[in-house]
Amino acid sequence: MVPRWLQRRIFDWLYTRGAAVYDPLTILLFAGEWREWQRSVLPWLQGDRILDLGCGTGQLLPDLASRAALVVGFDRSPAMLRRARRRAECCRVDLVRGDARALPFRPAAFTTVVSTFPSEYILDHETQAEIARVLEPGGRLVVVVSGTMCRWEWWQLPLRLAVRLFYGSANQAERHSRKALTSDVLPGEWQLQPCQRGSALVWVATRRESVPAAS
Question: Where are the alpha helices (DSSP H) in 59-197?
Fold first, then answer.
C-alpha cells in the first residue's frame, strides 16, 4: 500500500492543479463504478436538508438535489468548487468553501451529512464534533469509505493492482476507520451496499439526542 504521506501529496495535487483530471481519472480507474459507489449513500438519506461534506467536483449533488429541499455542497478546494458549480447549475444547490473543523452552519441545520471517499479530515475529532453539531438530533452521517469491484475486465487488471496498492483493501479501510469514526455522539454500523459490479463499504451513524457540552 502506498505510504499515507504520498497519498496526501497526490490528493493535494488532485484537489488543486489536478482538479480537471479528477473525474476522467475515476472513470479510467473504475470504469464508471465510482459513481455507483458514490450513489450508495442514497438509500440511507434521511430528511430533506442534506450537507455533502467534501463534495469535490459535485458528482453527487444532482442526485441529492432530486431528493431534498435543501442541499449544500461543502469543500475546502476552490478548484473543486469551480467544477462543482458548473455541475450544479441545473439544480438548486448551495456551494460553500471552508474548513470542516469549523462548519459555518447553525446547530441542527441538517438532517443528513454525507461524505464519499473523504480524506483523513473525516477522522479528526474536531470535524466529527462539528458534524454532530450541525446534525439535528436523530440525524444521519453517511460515509462511503471504500469500494470493491467483483468483476474486472481483462484490460483492467493492471489498474486493479494499482488501485489495491494505492488504497489497500476494503478490510484495511474498515480497520483503519472503525475506531476513529465511532464516537459517543455519532454511534454507527458498517453496511456493505451492493452495486452493479461490486459493493461499497458505508458507515451509517445516527446523531444522539444530546451532545455533551464542550469542556
Answer: 61-65, 78-87, 125-134, 157-167, 170-181
Per-domain boundaries in the chain: 4-206
Integer CA distances (angstroms), 163 to 123, 155, 194, in order: 22, 14, 19
pLDDT, tens digit, 9 for 90 and up, residues 152-185: 666 556 656 666 655 555 555 555 555 567 778 8
Handedness of CA 124, 9, 53, 173 (dihedral sign): negative
Q: What is the mean pLDDT of residues 124-148?
A: 93
- For domain 4-206, the CATH architecture is 3-Layer(aba) Sandwich (3.40)
Bridge partner list, 7: none
d(CA 150, CA 130): 36
pLDDT in tens, 48-87: 999 999 999 999 999 999 999 999 999 999 999 999 999 8
